[in-house]
């Protein structure tokens, strides 16, 4: 089944054409990297998929899990419902800093519980247990009671991923989730995303600056340049030489000489029973 289907999507900001006639299909269970130099349209594309931006009027459509998210420049009436199935992780950790980490993870329930319960922060013991288990799965069970603002960048991204697990979303969109992290934290976040994709069959779309991470963790890469798709295929086929041809001088920001180039198998995660998956 197709998880995300986009046809003829274009977007302009003033005179700037941020997306130019994008069409693509992502199947359920795929792990796809979106790469491209700064300003190539990665974030804009992700924001359209989750309905935070609306494409230009015309023939454009975005369907998510078989339901229309937007089309012809209008958000579908079902958009809100569809969004419940989409977890989003941003580069700038979108946690509520003054709340505990556990409370932040519990917010993943908001789409599924009565609004009054969410507003009052009244979560059941089952929901609290699920949130603690999600924190254990991403390897940070010990920070449950800490204020989110006290976490390191990598821990914040783990908490944001835990929140999408609690949300039980079928699709996870991660917009430059490792851009602010050191290489070791970045690898761990990519391992967690790859494991969540494999073990929970959650479709993952991850925008990245460095192609090495795409090659290592994502079987498929879609490369954007100036809002257009310039490559869509197996990540292993996207060679450095090809990047230089596609991006010219801008390819320097996509190629890191000192990061691993061999594909790695993500660590296996223990299913419920919930031993911390990532120490
Ligand atoms: N809200 C906005 N208003 C005006 N221009 C915008 C807006 N959002 C994006 N753009 C422009 O659209 C183009 C694509 O931006 P986008 O953020 O999608 O690129 P990106 O590939 O995610 O870049 P980066 O890797 O630097 O985050 C850029 O030229 C950007 O300046």
From TrEMBL:
InterPro entries according to UniProt: AAA+_ATPase, ABC_transporter-like_ATP-bd, ABC_transporter-like_CS, ABC_transpr_PhnC, MetN_ABC_transporter-like, P-loop_NTPase
Matches recorded under PROSITE patterns: ABC_TRANSPORTER_1 (PS00211), ABC_TRANSPORTER_2 (PS50893)
Lineage: superkingdom: Bacteria
Domain ABC transporter per the UniProt entry, residue ranges: 4-251
SMART domains: AAA
GO cellular component: membrane
One term of GO molecular function: ATP hydrolysis activity
Region Disordered, annotated ranges: 257-279
Keywords, in A-Z order: ATP-binding, Cell membrane, Membrane, Nucleotide-binding, Translocase, Transport
Family membership: Belongs to the ABC transporter superfamily.
Record protein name field: Phosphonate ABC transporter ATP-binding protein
Lineage summary: Bacteria, Pseudomonadati, Pseudomonadota, Alphaproteobacteria, Hyphomicrobiales
Gene name for this UniProt entry: phnC
């Amino acid at each position: 089944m197709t998880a995300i289907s986009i046809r003829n999507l274009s977007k302009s900001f003033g005179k700037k054409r941020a997306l130019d006639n994008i069409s693509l299909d992502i199947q359920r269970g795929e792990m796809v990297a979106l790469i491209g130099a700064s300003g190539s349209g990665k974030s804009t594309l992700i924001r359209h998929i989750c309905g935070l931006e609306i494409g230009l009027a015309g023939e454009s459509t975005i369907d998510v899990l078989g339901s229309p998210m937007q089309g012809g420049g209008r958000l579908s009436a079902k958009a809100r419902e569809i969004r419940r199935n989409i977890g989003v992780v941003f580069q700038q950790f979108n946690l509520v800093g003054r709340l505990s980490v556990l409370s932040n993870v519990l917010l993943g329930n908001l789409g599924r519980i009565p609004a009054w319960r969410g507003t009052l922060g009244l979560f059941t013991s089952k929901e609290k247990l699920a949130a603690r288990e999600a924190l254990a799965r991403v390897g940070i069970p010990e920070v449950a009671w800490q204020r989110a603002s006290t976490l390191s960048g990598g821990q914040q991204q783990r908490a944001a991923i835990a929140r999408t697990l609690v949300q039980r979303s079928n699709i996870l969109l991660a917009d430059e989730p490792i851009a602010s992290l050191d290489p070791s934290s970045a690898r761990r976040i990519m391992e967690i995303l790859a494991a969540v994709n494999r073990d929970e069959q959650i479709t993952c779309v991850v925008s990245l600056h460095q192609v090495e991470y795409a090659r290592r963790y994502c079987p498929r890469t879609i490369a954007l340049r100036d809002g257009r798709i310039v490559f869509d295929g197996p990540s292993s086929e996207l060679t450095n030489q090809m990047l230089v041809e596609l991006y010219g001088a801008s390819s320097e920001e996509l190629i890191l000489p000192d990061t691993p180039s061999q594909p790695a198998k993500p660590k296996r995660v223990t299913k419920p029973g919930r031993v911390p998956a990532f120490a």
